[in-house]
Structure formats: C-alpha cells, structure tokens
Amino acid sequence: MQTAAPLACPSCGGTKLYRDGIRYLADGSQTQRWLCRNCGFRFSENAKNGQKHNKSCRVGAPKPGVKNSVAKAVVLADTNGKSEQQAAGATEQTADIKGKLVQFMFQLANDGINEATIQNYIKTLKLLLKYGADLSNPESVKEVIAKQKRWSESTKALAAIVYGKFADLNKIKWKPPSYKPNRKVPFIPLESELDALIASCGKKLSALLRLLKETGIRVGEALKLEWKDLDVKNKAILLNSTEKHGVCRVVNVSEELMAMLNSLPKTSDRIFGSRHLSSWEGSFSLQRRKAAVKLQNPRLILIHFHTFRHWKATMEYAKTKDILHVMKVLGHRSLQNTLLYTQLINFETNEYHSATAKTVEEARQLIEAGFEYVCEIDNVQLFRKRK
Fold it and tell me: Can you tell me the distance from the alpha carbon of 329 to that of 331, in angstroms, rounded to the nearest whole number?
C-alpha cells in the first residue's frame, strides 16, 4: 500500500508546518490552515481530498500591485451578506456595493495612493460593514464609529477620514465627526530585547528585522528592495522605492547584515520575495508570541515592525542630539515628522555594555557594532553602548 506524501509548503517545499486554525468554506465545510515554519507562508488544505488548494485559492497567495487590493475588495463584497446578518443593528447593503468598493480601490490607485494605504482603507471599510454600518447612509456610519468603545480617538478619526474619501467618490454628503486624537508615546524596547527577538526568528524574518533595526527604514520599503539595490563592496543599500514621499537615499549597513542578505535564496528580483506584507505580519506575530513565552518577557509582544523605526530614531537622537541627522536617517522631508519620532526619554538609569580598543581596527569594529567613543586612558580607547 502506497503511503501518501507528507504535506509540503507550496512556496518553499518545506515540511515543517504549524497548524494555523480552521478555515470555513462557502459550502459549510472546514479545512485546516497551515503556516510554514521555514518561510512563513500560510495556506490551506482541501477539505475533501487533503491536498493543497491551487495557488489562486491559497491563503496569502501573492498578487502584486493594485490588482491584489481590488481582488480583496471583491472578496470583501462577496462576504458582506453574512457579516451584515450577524452584526447587531446592521442594515441591508445595496446590491452594487461590490462595484462601489472596486471603483473606490481603482480611484485610490489612480490618485497615486500607496498599496499599503489602500489595504488599510479596505480593512477600515470592512470593519465598518462588520459592525453594521450602511455605507450609503453617513449617519449610520457616524453612529457605528461612535459606538466603538474599544477604538481610540485616533482610530475613530482614521475611520472618518477613510469613509470621507469613499463618500466623496460616491457623491455622498458627509459632515465628518470631530475627533481629536492624542498621539501616544511609542514603546521603545531595549536593544537586547530586539536582538533576542531577531535571534528567535527564522532566516528570512531575522534578516528583515535586522535590516529594520540597522537602517530604520519602513517595512514596506524593505520588502520592495531588489538584489540590484545591494552594494556589497561598500556595504550599502540604495533606497529608491520609498513610501509616504520619503527621500531616496543610500543607507549603510554592517558587514554581518550584508552577509545575511546575500545568503537568502535568490528566487525573485526582490530580496525578500513576493510575499505580501500581511503574510510577514502573520509570521512575525507568531514568532513574537513564541519568543515572549520562551524568554518569559511579555514586553516582546509590544514590538511591531514600526517599533524598529521608532527605536532607531530615538537612539540616533540620544547619541548625536542632532535632529537634522535623524531627519536624514529616516528620510523625512519635513522636520515636523521627525519630531514625532524622537522621544524625550531619560536614559540615565539604563545600563551600558563597555568595550576597549587598542588599535584602529578594533575601534572600527566597535563603531560598526554600534558602540560610541567615550574617552582614552593610558592609550586605551573606551567605548560604550546601551543595553
């Protein structure tokens, strides 16, 4: 009797998999969802014969460009009926809601809106529909936003902005509610916590996190990097595909990071492949929870992709006290944006790693590792770095 071949990841062919919940199909049946431990790809089994779904049906299958956003809008529109029946106080959606959502996505793309921003708009509209909002009735939308007790003022303000754009496209009169969000102080972890989290992840995810830590670039910018953007000789990365109208620039990286990037499989023009951001977020969330439990440090749960950018900006400002330098590192065009990233944190109680150097080569290696020069005693240079 011939034994069935073990289930393998459709992306990398790996057989080390995690169970990732149950997927409910349209016919009422269920199928097991899986997460690849090697590359973080998520996919589902066929409920009837145990085989993998086709690429077009897999969870998280990459569809580059705006087509991916539109495809998600179509799926959203198809599932609205079930959500509306379940949501308390939900009103019946119009028959052409699918067309309006697709048209909305295309209009945002034509206006030059970034794909990641389009995805966030889709999620916001999905939440409004889930909680019973009638997108053709602005008063219904206002009521739904106001009733969300768990939403912060910032989330409510964002929801009002997103619906305002949708209302403008569909010529709906919309008087937005007044929400005044207070910007919260972001969580700034210790460098040792970032390093522990990076070390606990797989090869690709570790390289991505190390890149975010050393450069402070946005995760969307990192995922767009191509092999031709690497300058191995000068240990630098050419950043031309920026987000939020950021400044194109050259960022220097360590020799260790350059080696990590070069060791990744070259199966695509992009360094990190064609996986969508949501797939990376799912993998990171899983690895972050496992690391928090293993290391008994719940603070790791608070670390997100953007936390690395806040950490980089805060550390650079603490080290140089030069806001213009931080502005250049982050690629901002406006100094006001940079001021939001540099937090006035008291580091006096923080502990330091100390190191000494007797030669120029030793000093160079310490500086590349993030140490800062303190003083020189008896022809020995002293360096330090915050833990």
Answer: 6
